[in-house]
Amino acid sequence: MSRQRQRGSFMLEALIGMVLFFLGVLTMIALQANSIAIQADSQYRTEAGNLADQILGEINLNSRDGTGTVNAVTLATFSHQPTGGTTTCRLLATDPAANNDCCNFSGQVSANPLVTAWVASASTNTATRLPGSGATRQQIVVNTATANQVTVTVCWQGPKDARPRFHRVVGYIN
Domain limits of the chain? Predict the structure, then answer.
């Protein structure tokens, strides 16, 4: 080939190389943003597990009488919004009720100071607060008829989540 026909080919190769390089950089930036979102979700799930474990420990310690036997009346005072959200939870995005039934709790709010402090730490304490959580999105169901079963559900909704997320732990206080 003559020198005349090759004029500008170096410039074209350099331009293609720069485009490929910047596509790679943009891909790396997108991957980094995605990994940050996954890390935040993992952090929320860990915090929800810690909060559920914390209240189960408090219930285990403070529901016993002087002899160490579980007192069913004291155990029942830990119940917090025991209606809704525990038996069915629709997770499919195609289900119209999926946004509401997992964390739609109602019923008597616990007056137990340990529960009110726990609810406050889940919803207002900046060190342990989950995004989109509130007092109405936390549930403790006490079933003394089933071997003192306690079900704790912690709900939150991240800034980019379309519907609430939840973490549910079942424990037995014996």
Answer: 44-172
